[in-house]
Amino acid sequence: MSSYPSLQTLLEQPDPHALLKIRRSFRSVLSSLTLFFLLTFAVYVLNLYFQSSHLRWLALIPAGVLLEVLRKYHNDLYVLGTHSLTSYHGRLSLSYSVPTLKYGHIRSVSVDQDIWGRIFDYGDISIQTAASDDNELLMVGVRNPVALATLIEELRNHSREQADKGESEEAVEETKESDD
User: What's the structural domain count of the chain?
Assistant: First the structure.
């Protein structure tokens, strides 16, 4: 079982905007990859059995499934920074979006796993903010989603602590200025 680095390890990274980059787990596309191999075997058997060139075009079907597997795997990238979470969705699609959520705005983080996700340790993470009733961000097919959700919660708490510390320091400075 793979896990993510601790919060302290992440905060020691030299680039505060990209502490951790996450993409879809390979395990989450195993079902599509299995379909590719089954279709490849079926096309091979059909071409051997009928021995005609009229069925060679069937090889396009497994090729299309393989392209979809590659697209699914490389389509999404999630970047955790010190103050925000950015999702690059649709990198290999016609529609491309880059929503960024500040940790201070996150209201809830929930994990969703089906039976295959629990067996192979992958799942979806839904992140909601106060701005929307729906999921603001959906991290699809990430490995070890419970540990990742915990890490996002820790980053959210750290960000809030830093914001509270900054506000208290500003209040102390304003008090000093008003006393002068």
Answer: 1
DSSP code, position 176: H
Other beta carbons within 10 angstroms of residue 152's beta carbon come to 21
Residue 79 is part of which domain span?
12-172
- b/e map of 34-59 (b: 16 or more CB within 10 Å)? ebbeebbeebeeebeeeeeeeeeeee
3-state secondary structure of 130: coil
CATH of the domain at 91: 2.30.29
Distance separating alpha carbons of residues 34 and 103, to the nearest angstrom:
38
Give the pLDDT confidence of 78-110 residue by residue, as tens digits.
999 988 999 999 988 889 999 999 998 899 999
In a domain, 1, yes or no: no
What is the crossing angle of helices 60-75 and 30-50, to 10°?
170
pTM for this one? 0.82
